[in-house]
Design brief:
By secondary structure, the chain is an alpha+beta fold. Helix 11 packs antiparallel against helix 12 and helix 13 runs antiparallel to helix 14. It is globular. The chain has three domains: 152 residues, Alpha-Beta Plaits; 56 residues, DNA polymerase, domain 1 (Orthogonal Bundle), CATH 1.10.150; 164 residues, Dna Ligase, domain 1. The protein contains 17 helices and twelve strands. 45% of the residues lie in helices and 20% in strands. The chain has a five-stranded mixed sheet. It has a four-stranded antiparallel sheet with strand order 9-12-10-11, covered by helices on one side. The longest helix is centred in the middle third of the chain and has 22 residues.
Amino acid sequence: MLMKQIIIHVDMDAFYASVEMRDDPSLKGKPLIIGSLPQERGVVATCSYEARKYGVHSAMNIKEAYRLCPGGVYMHPNFEKYRAVSNQLHRICNTYATAAETIALDEAYLDVTEKAGNWEVACEMARTIKRRTKDELGLTCSIGVAYSKTAAKTASEEKKPDGYFEIPTPEAFVRLIIDRDVRVLYTVGSKTAERLYSAGIHTVRDIHERPDEVIRLLGKPGEWITRIARGEDDRRVTPYRPEEAKSVSRELTFQADVEDEAFLRDVLLLLSLSVEQLAARVGLYGEGVALKLTYANMKSISRSKLMPSTRSAIRIYHEAVSLLAQTARQPVRLIGVGIYHLSGEYSLQLRFDDLMPEVETRQAAEIQERLAELHGRYGLDFAGNLDKIFHGETLYRTVEYMRRHRPVQAPG
């Protein structure tokens, strides 16, 4: 069967949890919840299918997850390990695709139209990816093969976990979903669904029968929903390019609210160093710095300012500290910093002295000086362990140690 477009959607099954169970067989068959621990603030990152039987799901507040599943096994995520496994997965997938669009560590769209040449070969490729993922990574994935991105994602969800499903035509797609809830269309989130429900539109068939009402109700998004409900989706698989990212940022949630501004500045230094490392990894510079705070009352604010192009940690740090000084003094639950207006090259707006070698030397010296100050305050060897500290879980644990052991500030 010749096809205008053949797309494979690969979706790992409970990825983080599956990796942990693979590496520790004693976890198999247990309700495993990856994210925060029950006594901490935070949410569920993912969980095993055994945990899902209790009603636990991704993004659920960890306290609610513990209420539903008090006998579960709770673990912090190890993102460096998951990223390494993800790289192995994408190497397998890229063997068969002319274009690959990575959505997350555990999910990707693959355009195999050209390499496969026809539907039958594409389906054999999909089965090979599934087999190699099991044999080489020791993990299962669910795969959908279809004529479009929407249909391919729907297909991969159809037989989860460890599933395989094909949707060759728009007609087959419509037949499959016509009498299902509108949420089967993955672009329809909970809020959009509620608006449709309130108008008496509950199924895909209702969308087919009342397209004008859907468009009146939702505007431009409604036009898209009516199209994909009919199986119309000609979007191409678009490989991710780092320079298309909107920002590079890091943020942390404290386990207890923080009012100590000096401590917040110390955390901003570590976050700025982490942003520098992330930006350098993908070869990006930013022309703006942003600060994010979430207060104890859950109100979030952001402050930002433009600057000459940089990814220098000390420059990011100084700008972030100046933004922090402009915010209200009240207990902080979360703090984050990032750069935006990204580019793969230095901007022409660079100041002349930024091009001078002694500036880089001076900035490096200031970083070492400030890390030495942190060592004196907290007794941690920051300078000798920066690479380790920037791993997500280690950074979190380091900041929590700092919070518990920070010097007591004198009154006034």
